[in-house]
Design brief:
Layout: H1 12-21, E1 30-34, E2 38-42, H2 49-56, H3 60-67, E3 80-84, E4 98-102, H4 109-115, H5 120-127, E5 140-144, E6 155-159, H6 166-172, H7 177-183, E7 197-201, E8 240-244, H8 254-263, E9 268-272, H9 275-279, H10 289-300, E10 304-309, H11 329-342, E11 349-352, H12 369-386, E12 391-394, H13 410-419, E13 428-434, H14 444-448, H15 464-473, E14 480-487, H16 505-522, E15 527-532, H17 560-567
Parallel strand pairs: 8-9, 8-15, 9-10, 10-11, 11-12, 13-14, 14-15
Antiparallel strand pairs: 1-2, 2-3, 4-5, 6-7
Helix pairs in contact: 6-7, 11-12, 12-13, 16-17
């Protein structure tokens, strides 16, 4: 993959600043005194401007003006906001009766303000607090009013079930998601997991479901709110026409390349959305600027998108590696939830990682199907929570005959995936199907018996039939497959490891069109989209092996394969 993917985002000063602002114990929303008349607040997952304004007892307009916000509907996790006081001079202590409150373990200033119907600013002013994050168990605070919490103090415990989210639980208990988040010190209200125990503040005997008193073991029979069921996954035609693009880096020619896809009559685009390019600065610090442009460019042309999501940020994996799974799979799930929420209905499918049966794509260590399935499980659940109708496609597996520690053959790896429970955590099985030297109609058996064609079953386009057989053996025939990468190379370089199976540009064009015809005539209805390699990256040269798989040139001119695809009936 391109050298650009190896760049590490260096924002240590920003990360250090955020680390200094985060409460070391409670994980409460960050706020810090800035001068005598304002605070700064670090936006948390799930917050909007109205919620922040209410917490500090100011107006959204005041925050907008203090921060020069152009779109009040858009704030993001990790963003720093100046919270102005209600006047230019320091706010006077609240008038009227006050009472004392002794801080309990787990309290945050936001939680105390919420319980007493006060604002954070009013308690800060009343107590002369310099840093609202730094309160401690046993500390006595003055709070406005006569010490009667505005919310019921009764609590109960709920055990999170598969498919739950905080909003649904809050609705069931007639409370708010934010109240539950505060009561449980949730740093990320968007992330809860099955088996987690949540304290539900203010529940009453009429709450639904029946609450479990605190300090008792929650019973499995407690009725959960309805689980989030994935929406119906659209069935694709056999085949649908797609192409791999590199719009992420080709900003200058992004519109041109997307229009070339449209003009060729292709309807799907597979595009890399590098995790580290979006969340590289730190957990929850998301830069959607390029992603927004790519999605908008494709949406404007009516093209459907498969988003390949891998390449971990440096902070997510202590062991380094150019491409490897994160140390905490939940970090990947959180990112996918944020991405699927943002692009709900605008990105149609997500490819979960890439070629995990190769060590170089699995952190430079021996690949492990059970580990990948664990990552796939997290990804599937989080995407479906955010966008139940989005397709979850497994990573395309690399056809290979190499064994451990460097690789696991794709058919063997897929069997191990099913043994690890993958069946329930994907909608479409992804595959890679380079044609090598063989014509697209050539069967794996023919190739196995022909040394000139490689002498191994995987050296052909129809290799996907072997993978399909594994699906059938595991009772998964009802699902479709997607070929996420396929094509033929025209690499003429004598020293290239791809030269032995190179074909001419004219043969490449003929084989690609015939591959779609073969799928239409023989793989219906189980084959869906097939993604050709590729609309070229403008940075590629003839020294790059990827250049020779492409169907266009870096300057935007076409090759015979593009012209043949454009003319082919679809």
């Amino acid at each position: 993959m391109r050298k650009r993917m190896c760049r590490t985002v260096m924002m240590l000063s920003l990360i250090a600043l955020l680390a200094a602002l985060v409460s070391p114990v409670w994980g409460a929303p960050e706020a810090k005194r800035q001068g005598a008349s304002s605070l700064i607040h670090i936006v948390q997952w799930g917050e909007n401007l109205t919620l922040v304004a209410r917490r500090y007892g100011v107006t959204t307009t005041a925050i907008v003006q203090a921060n020069g916000i152009s779109n009040p509907n858009y704030i993001y996790a990790g963003q720093t906001l100046i919270i102005p006081a209600s006047s230019t001079s320091p706010a006077p202590p609240p008038s009227g009766p006050t009472s004392s409150y002794v801080v309990q373990r787990g309290d945050t200033l936001s939680a105390i303000a919420y319980r007493f119907g006060a604002t954070v600013n009013s308690i800060v002013s009343l107590n002369g607090l310099v840093n609202p994050n730094l309160i401690f168990a046993g500390q006595t605070l003055r709070v406005p009013g006569r010490g009667e919490p505005s919310q019921p103090t009764q609590t109960c415990v709920y055990v999170v079930k598969s498919g739950d989210n905080l909003t649904r639980i809050a609705l069931a208990y007639r409370t708010t998601a934010w109240a539950i988040a505060i009561a449980n010190n949730l740093a990320n209200p968007s992330f809860i997991w099955p088996g987690q125990q949540l304290v539900i503040p203010g529940c009453s005997p009429s709450s639904v479901p029946t609450p479990v008193p605190p300090n008792q073991t929650p019973q499995p029979t407690v009725t959960a709110v309805p689980t989030v069921q994935p929406g119906p996954v659209a069935r694709m035609n056999t085949p649908e026409y797609g192409v791999h693009t590199f719009l992420w880096w080709n900003g200058e020619h992004r519109a041109r390349d997307a229009q070339m896809v449209k003009d060729a009559g292709l309807t799907w685009v597979k595009e890399l959305f590098p995790w580290r390019s979006i969340e590289g600065a730190g957990k929850g610090i998301l830069d959607w600027s390029v992603a927004d442009q790519v999605v908008q460019t494709l949406n404007d042309r009516g093209l459907k998108t498969i988003a390949r999501v891998d390449f971990q940020p440096a902070w997510a994996r202590a062991g380094g590696a150019n491409n490897g799974p994160p140390d905490n799979y939940r970090d990947y799930g959180d990112f996918l939830y944020a991405m699927a929420s943002r692009y709900r209905g605008r990105i149609q499918a997500y490819e979960i990682w890439n070629e995990p049966n190769l060590a170089r794509e699995w952190g430079d260590r021996p690949p492990n199907a059970a580990e990948y399935v664990a990552l796939l499980r997290v990804a599937y659940r989080r995407i479906k929570e955010a966008d139940p109708n989005a397709m979850v496609i497994t990573a395309g597996l690399a056809p290979t005959g190499t064994g451990l520690p460097h690789a696991i053959p794709d058919v063997q790896y897929l069997r191990q995936m099913y043994q690890a429970g993958a069946k329930n955590y994907f909608d479409v099985l992804g595959a890679h199907a380079p044609g090598y030297k063989a014509a697209p109609e050539t069967s794996p058996s023919e190739v196995q018996n022909n040394r000139a064609l490689g002498g191994r079953r995987f050296f052909c386009f129809r290799r996907v039939e072997d993978l399909r057989q594994v699906m059938v053996e595991n009772g998964d025939a009802g699902k479709q497959m997607a070929v996420l990468e396929f094509g033929w190379t025209s690499d003429p370089r004598p020293g290239s490891p791809y030269n032995w199976h190179s074909v001419s540009e004219e043969t490449k064009a003929d084989y690609i069109v015939r591959a779609f015809q073969w799928a239409r005539d023989h793989w219906s209805p189980w084959m869906g989209v097939m993604t050709v390699l590729s609309i070229t990256d403008t940075a590629w040269t003839e020294d790059d092996e990827q250049y020779w798989w492409a169907i266009t040139n870096p300057d935007g001119t076409t090759r015979p394969a593009y012209d043949a695809l454009r003319s082919a009936p679809k």
